[in-house]
Known about the structure:
Blueprint: H1 8-19, E1 29-32, H2 42-57, E2 61-66, H3 76-89, E3 97-99, H4 104-116, E4 120-123, H5 127-132, H6 150-162, E5 171-174, E6 189-193, E7 207-209, H7 211-222, E8 226-230, H8 237-246, E9 254-258, E10 261-263, H9 270-278, H10 293-299, H11 303-313, E11 320-322, H12 324-338, E12 340-342, E13 344-345, E14 348-353, E15 362-367, E16 377-382, E17 385-389, E18 409-412, E19 416-425, E20 431-438, E21 455-457, E22 459-461, E23 466-473, E24 498-506, E25 519-521, E26 525-529, E27 539-545
Parallel strand pairs: 1-2, 2-3, 8-9, 10-11, 12-25, 14-20, 18-21, 23-27
Antiparallel strand pairs: 4-5, 5-6, 6-7, 13-24, 14-17, 15-16, 17-22, 18-19, 19-20, 23-24, 25-26, 26-27
Residues 33-35, 43-44, 46-47, 67, 229-230, 260-261, 268-270 line the site of adenosine-5'-triphosphate.
Amino acid sequence: xxxxxxxxxxxxxxxxxxxxGTYYGKRVHTRFPPEPNGYLHIGxxxxxxxxxxxxxxxxxxxxxxxxxxxxxxxxxxxxDAIKEDISWLGFDWEDRFYYASDYFEQMYGYAxxxxxxxxAYVCELSGDRMREYRGDLSTPAKSPxxxxxxxxxxxxxxxxxxxxxxxxxxxLRAKIDLASGNFNMRDPVLYRINHMHHHRTGDKxxxxxxxxxxxxxxxxxxxITHSLCTLEFEAHRPLYDWVVDNISATNKPxxxxxxxxxxNNTVMSKRKLRQLVEEKHVSGWDDPRMPTICGLRxxxxxxxxxxxxxxxxxxSKVNSTVEYGFLEHCLRDDLNENAARAMxxxxxxxxxxxxxxxxxxxxxxxxxxxxxxxxxxxxxTFSRELYIESTDFMEEPIxxxxxxxxxxxxxxxxxxxxxxxxxEKDADGKVTxxxxxxxxxxxxxxxxxxxxVRGTIHWVNAEDCIDAEVRxxxxxxxxxxxxxxxxxxxxxxxxxxxxxxxxxxxxxSLKNAxxxxxxxxMRQGYFCIDNKGSSPERLVFNxxxxxxxxxxxx
Length: 554
Ligand code: ATP
Ligand code: MG
């Protein structure tokens, strides 16, 4: 696998290693900590790449940790899907798969330690009061419970755990600095009461740790050296360090923040993606229009394309939005190199070669990839009746049109040169059949006399082609940033994001296509079998991306 490009995180790690302090001689150890409350999206792919890729680069280790400190109901579905997606991307946590909820007892122990050290206290302010007493830049926060005796806090905290108090009645707060300019340090809440069932610990707990307290402890317990997270945690780092410094831990992980990935014409938060699924605006988390990893996979994206994308967008400290076109560009780059070529007619009309003998069939051996002879060849068959794209014929050609029109010669890709002789129309004037004559001297599509034939069109043999459905996808949203628009982001869903073509004709070799294969349908784009909708009796293909690269390098 490619080695991750250098970035500021690696500079920090290099410095840490060179300094010879805490990190000296230690193997770099990172973690990817998703909350199992939804499917992973392309933003997570960046975080996965940053964590696993950094570990790989330093010959270190990366853990997979379910950050499940919030009590929720069963979500095995999400846990399994997260594992599948990460493996598919090509990363391996080996035997280091953890649940943060497994550390609840240790977290509780550290909380008791802080109380005993006079660094935490039980506070009885309600949520509203706490907000009211939060203060502002010139006024410190306050809590009348701050100086309660250690023994009293210890007793109350024990009773909080025992379930004596109802939700919201009290919290455990760190005793740090009520006047801090960083509001996260104004005696932040470490534990809250929440009588809720947890999917793994059941009803064992009715107090749950806050993220800012739990996360550093999780990192400490797992021996993480570098805790790589997104920028919104930057202002929480002093609290992260405070927790690490004040609990009796020998391991001192360092938090380093990097910019989140945003992509235009889509939404990325799990809450919004879930809404799209639940309100049935899409067919599921793996709808090929979704920016989820499983959606992209179903759409036809490859792990290599996604890894290349996450590497090329780079890692920085500045949030920015990447064009969707760049993700597509990375896929095209991969598939142009690696996808086998094939022919498919998406909107077919008949082409009858009137001077070709009825009942005759010829075979042509064509290469699967123009630049990769090692990808082999396949046989395509040719007979009197073919299907061609309806747009490849015009009875009255527009200017510069070089495809079929009466009197014009065109190359039937890899087969023969044909000359259009006319067409037949139905009662509505719609063309149903195009007629042409072939030149037997041009087998393989060559002109022995050297005459120029401008247009080349793709085709399939009407005799043995396969019927299939093809789904074309476009942006899910009509605006670059649906989150920033007025009103509900749902209002900006594009009505044209899915186009289903039910009457497509594919060359017969595609009958044996594997779900993992990707194809370039000549002149159409890159396609793959839909891993849900397709069956051997009724093939369904998804267009992963079209051929035209709209992405302009800036
Ligand atoms: P969301 O807002 O989409 O629900 P989250 O941050 O709540 O995302 P988590 O499951 O907590 O989702 O995320 C796991 C890890 O992935 C975190 O370390 C988080 O920083 C990172 N991550 C999430 N979204 C992005 C993104 N858009 N770009 C980069 N990293 C991300
Ligand atoms: Mg989250």
